[in-house]
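ok, trying the design again with the full structure, not the truncated one.
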């Protein structure tokens, strides 16, 4: 018997390499602990993570945590960007601090966008839509170019990054302009800056991304680690022994750690037993902060699957027919749905006999990712489709209407958001 899997649209097999080769953990293992899981979590659109348990622990115990993402203001915001915005907003609703960077330095350096266009696209495409989708005041929205804490931190991180490492990740060559390299470090600074003292100090911060973005996350985790004064190692083989190494720490700081943990002080490290890793890490963070270090926690990440393009293949900003922009006219959005590729059979008879293939259907994907919130309702669509009682023509019309409604409503909210920019410390010009 085949089981119905209404969330199976994007096959997780395509992603299994990420688990095995790159050490990304399965999100499913955490799902049971989350109180009001987001639609993307319930439906396994979010399938992987790094260190998300740290975020979850803070969320469940009422401790500080944050979620951050950045958007390059180089074109239109579309449904793919909406996914990330929703993930940030969800974390804000769970009590987290929300950060939204407009990556204007990157757009200027890499895409040649003028500062004026960056400003305009940043506000009109990304910020207004994020507010319309539910981002609330208290969120930190900023343009990289105008935000000194991030620019200063990127310079500092540059001390620990070298050309070979960056070029391996970003494909830089001798021809790459320097500002492009700077913008890569700026992205790492975006990710780490919520942990600066002025933003409340070290805390779990989650960066929701598509799985292709993992190299950036790994780079930033590496930089966090290299920038810190201490390294904490669990030496399981030696019966719960924990070692703290002072990579760039003063003797005094190391001494203080030994004293506060009851550990044994050596030349360049302290050995500690009878303490949990959490306890040791929190002492080390306090001592490091006191002695002028950053004590960054490695940033956490979640990985979501991609939507396929409406015409099959990839969704790409350079192919307008492949995506629906949040500012597409409702009419045009509906038309794009009507022209989208389905998982329907060649003839109606076949469709009735064999049923449709929602797993291969970009229309079904729109329902699953964006347009149907109720899981049972979605399950009905799925069952009717595979059972052959749902025909694509009607199904597309149904979906097109939902899309029209969503875009109309979203765009009304965007208009209202124009009046609310002040609440976020921003203005339209
Ligand atoms: N580089 C990202 C892009 O191309 C934008 C970005 C800048 C970003 N800073 C970030 C994404 C921080 C996640 C976190 O769209
Ligand atoms: Fe896709 Fe709907 Fe056709 Fe099923 S009936 S293949 S979900 S368009």
């Amino acid at each position: 018997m085949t089981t119905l899997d209404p969330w199976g649209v994007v096959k997780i097999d395509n992603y299994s390499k990420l688990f095995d080769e790159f050490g990304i953990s399965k999100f499913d293992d955490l799902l049971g602990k989350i109180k009001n899981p987001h639609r993307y979590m319930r439906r396994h659109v979010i399938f992987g993570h790094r260190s998300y348990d740290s975020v979850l622990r803070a969320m469940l115990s009422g401790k500080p945590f944050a979620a951050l993402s950045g958007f390059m203001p180089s074109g239109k915001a579309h449904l793919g960007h909406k996914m990330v915005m929703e993930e940030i907003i969800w974390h804000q609703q769970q009590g987290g601090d929300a950060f939204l960077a407009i990556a204007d330095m990157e757009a200027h350096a890499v895409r040649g966008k003028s500062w004026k266009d960056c400003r305009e696209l940043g506000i009109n495409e990304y910020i207004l839509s994020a507010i319309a989708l539910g981002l609330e005041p208290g969120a930190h929205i900023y343009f990289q170019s105008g935000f000194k804490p991030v620019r200063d931190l990127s310079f500092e991180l540059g001390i620990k990054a070298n050309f070979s490492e960056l070029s391996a990740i970003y494909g830089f060559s001798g021809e790459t302009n320097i500002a492009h390299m700077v913008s890569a470090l700026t992205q790492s600074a975006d990710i780490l800056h919520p942990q600066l003292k002025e933003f409340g100090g070290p805390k779990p911060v989650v960066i929701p991304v598509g799985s292709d973005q993992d190299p950036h996350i790994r780079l930033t985790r590496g930089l966090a680690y290299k920038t810190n004064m201490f390294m904490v190692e669990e030496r399981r083989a030696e019966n719960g022994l924990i070692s703290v190494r002072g990579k760039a720490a003063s003797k005094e700081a190391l001494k203080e750690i030994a004293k506060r943990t009851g550990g044994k002080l050596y030349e360049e490290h302290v050995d500690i037993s009878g303490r949990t890793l959490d306890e040791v890490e929190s002492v080390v963070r306090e001592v490091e902060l006191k002695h002028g270090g950053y004590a960054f926690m490695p940033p956490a990440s979640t990985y979501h699957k991609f939507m396929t393009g409406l015409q099959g293949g990839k969704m790409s900003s350079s192919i307008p027919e492949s995506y629906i922009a949040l500012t597409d006219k409702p009419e045009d959005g509906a038309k794009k749905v009507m022209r989208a590729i389905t998982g329907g059979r060649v003839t109606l008879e076949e469709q009735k006999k064999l049923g449709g293939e929602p797993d291969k259907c970009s229309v079904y994907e729109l329902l699953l990712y964006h347009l149907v919130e109720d899981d049972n309702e979605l399950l009905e669509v799925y069952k009717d489709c595979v059972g052959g009682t749902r025909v694509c023509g009607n199904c597309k019309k149904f979906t097109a209407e939902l899309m029209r409604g969503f875009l109309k409503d979203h765009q009304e909210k965007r208009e209202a958001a124009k009046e609310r920019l002040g609440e976020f410390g921003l203005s339209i010009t």
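Keeping the full-length input from now on. Residues 68-72, 101, 103, 106, 187, 190-191, 207 surround tryptophan (ligand 1) (CB under 6 Å).
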